[in-house]
Amino acid sequence: MQTTIYNSRFRKTAMMVACAAAFVCCKSKVDGIAHADSGKAPAAATKPSAPVAEPDEFNTSIINGTANNATLLEGLNVPWRQSENDMYVQAVIARGPSIVRPLLAAIVHGTYKQLPNVITALNGMGEAAVPTMIKVMKSDKELLVRVNALSSLCNLKRAGKIGPETEPAVIAAMVAMLSDEEVDMRRHASQNIAKFGAAAIGPLIAALDDPRTRYEDGVESYAADALIFIGQPSVAPLIAMTKDPDEDKRVYAARSLSRIGEPALPELREGLKGAPLMQMGCMMALGYIDDAKSINPIIRLLHSRTTEVSATAALNLGRLHARKALPELKRMAHDKNVDPFVQNIASEAVSKIQSESGPGSGGHQ
């Protein structure tokens, strides 16, 4: 039940943040046009529920530096004229890192009206807010506040406000979140680290060595998922990983390549010419991609001098429903000179192709 509630709140918060980020870009223009068309001054300010300094008093508090964080945050939620509204936002930006955590919490606990101002203020702080965002992301007591810290770092990246000197620290912090105790945090990190593109690939490849980044069932890794989200730039490093001595890493690489799909095909086909481990990894990936051009090279690998390569070829020809391979697979299944292990795999492949490659099944000729 708790997980369901968190997932619901997580999705709602993420949607609100995305809407607010887009809203911020056009809010001031829309307000200006509306006022010009009406020929009237903006509506009078609505009194907030908590005491907030009026604009004149606020000007004084800005000059004196006496406005506290609570007043600034509440002020973001009041429909002042645009000039006063901008004044509050600029005052929040000027307050600096000390107000970052309250702003992140406001995304969770504030109102929709406040959200665009909060996003504007966080983006306006730029790199000055990064250390605090990282700290909150790692250790805050509220999960959704931590998630918002991660999202805000991605917003800064998207806005071009994280420079090359700061970026490695941000990426390292996000990679660390792949082993977080909270599943939602791990998933959110694996999806959003992709926004850092090729710069994140090296740390993610290294993270595959860390057992804490793997799913509990051992099938996939959050780091591998992040590489999938990055897409084509991840292909070459994943191809290289298919020849790693660690079988788990080879499996992660093959499955990740299969999920990247078509963008990985040229390098997967080339990988069939590589060393035996690479050939096996590339065949495992191709076995889940509907690629007719891979059939002939895989059929040739049935005759590899390496037993494991021959067996992998037979297995994946079965997965591909390669009817063209049936004569050779049948011969191998009954040839006493063929390794018994390969014989068994070839026999299973024949059964699979014959049972699933009838008319309209999509099997390859």
Task: Give structural notes.
The longest helix has about 35 residues, at about 1-40. α4 crosses α6 and α8 (about 145-160) runs parallel beside α10. The radius of gyration is 28 Å and the shape is elongated. Mean pLDDT is about 80; it is low at about 1-5, about 20-55 and about 355-360. The protein contains 20 helices and no strands. The two termini are about 50 Å apart. Among the domains are: about 1-25 and about 65-135 and about 145-160, no CATH class; about 295-360, Leucine-rich Repeat Variant (Alpha Horseshoe), CATH 1.25.10. The chain is an all-alpha fold.
Keywords:
Leucine-rich Repeat Variant, 365 residues, single chain, disordered N terminus, mainly alpha, elongated
Quick gist of this model?
With about 375 residues, this protein is mostly helical. The protein contains 20 helices and no strands.
Topology:
Blueprint: H1 2-38, H2 55-64, H3 69-75, H4 82-95, H5 100-109, H6 115-125, H7 130-139, H8 143-158, H9 167-176, H10 183-192, H11 201-207, H12 222-230, H13 235-241, H14 247-260, H15 265-271, H16 276-286, H17 295-300, H18 307-319, H19 326-334, H20 340-356
Helix pairs in contact: 1-6, 1-8, 3-4, 4-6, 5-6, 5-8, 7-8, 8-10, 10-12, 11-12, 12-14, 13-14, 14-16, 15-16, 16-18, 18-20, 19-20
Based on CA inertia axes, which overall geometry fits? elongated
Give the H and E element order: HHHHHHHHHHHHHHHHHHHH
Assess the beta-strand content as a share of residues. Answer: under 5%
User: Nearest-angstrom radius of gyration?
Assistant: 28 Å
> Helical stretch count?
20
